[in-house]
Design a protein that fits this description.
Blueprint lengths: L4 E5 L5 H13 L2 E3 L6 H7 L7 E4 L2 E4 L1 H11 L10 H30 L6 H21 L13 H16 L3 H4 L3 H11 L2 H7 L14 H9 L32 H6 L6 H10 L3 H11 L16
Parallel strand pairs: 1-2
Antiparallel strand pairs: 1-3, 3-4
Amino acid sequence: MAPKQYTLHAPPGSFRAFKALIAAEYGDVNVTVPEEFDAAAVAKLSPFGRAPVLETEKGAITSSNAICRYLAAIRPETGLLGDSVFEAAEIDSWVDFASNELDLPASVWVYPVVGYMQFSQAAYEKAKADLAASLAALDSHLLTRTFLVTDQVTLADIAVASSLVYPFKLVADKNFLKPFTNVVRWFTTCVKQEEFIAVIGAVTMCKTELKAPGQAADKKAAGGKKADKKTDKKKGKKEDKPAAPAPVKKVEHPYKIMDREAPSTMVMDTWKKTYSNAATYDESMSKFWETYDMEGFSLWHMVYNYN
C-alpha cells in the first residue's frame, strides 16, 4: 500500500508551517509544500481564507495547531503527543502557550524588521516586555527539565521553538536573552535535532538586534540631542565627574585550584549536551562511561525518604 501524501499550503518561510513540517519529519510523514504559494487555492480550501492549510484525501485541515496535532497523531509511536491523556493535555497547553503568549509579541517585534508592518515605538516596547514576561515563565519551567513535558522532544517543544526561531535569529540579542539561560539551553538543544534542521536549517543566534526602517530615527527623535556638558559659568570649566568605584575583585572558588593542578578530562557542559541529544538512555549512558573521569569526579547513589 502506497504511503499517504499530504500537501501543506503556506507562504515561504512561515513560522506557523514550521511546527507542522517538523512534526512530519519526526513521524516520517510525506508532506509536500508547493514551490509557489497559491492564495487562490487556500481561499478555496479554507473557510477562513487563511494559510496554512493541509490538504488530505479526506479534505482540508485549517489552523496551524490543528495541522501539527493531526500530523503528530499519524505516528503515535513517536511520542510527540505523550504517552497518556495527562501528558497529551500538558503538551496541548504548551502548544496553546506558543500561540497565545509568544506569537503576537514576537510578530510585532519581528514584522517591522522584515517589512511586514510599520514600526511603532510604543508597540515595539510593549512587544519586548510581553515576550520577556513569557520567556521568564518558560525559563522557570525549564530550570529542572531538558524538554517541556517528557524526557524527549514532543509537539510542545516543536511548537514553542518554532515560535521563537525568527525572534532568536533576528532581534533577541545576547543582552535580551541573558536572564533566560534555561530557555537558550533548551532552544539550542531543540534546533540542533536533525528533524528541526531538515525544516529550518542551521539556526544562528542573534548577536546584534536588527532594526526596523525608521526605528533609529524615532529613537533619536525621542531622545533629542545629547545634553551639553555642564560648565561652570564663572570659571568656564567642565564639572568634574565623580570617580568610578574601584572594581570588586572576584573571589575564586576554592575548588578551582583542583582544575589548575589536575584538570579533569570530563567537561560537564559537554556531557549535558551529549545527554540531551542522545536518542536513547542506553546511548547516553554509553557515552557517559566513555567520558567519565574517576580521578576528577565521584558517583553517589542517593535514596530519599520523600519525593
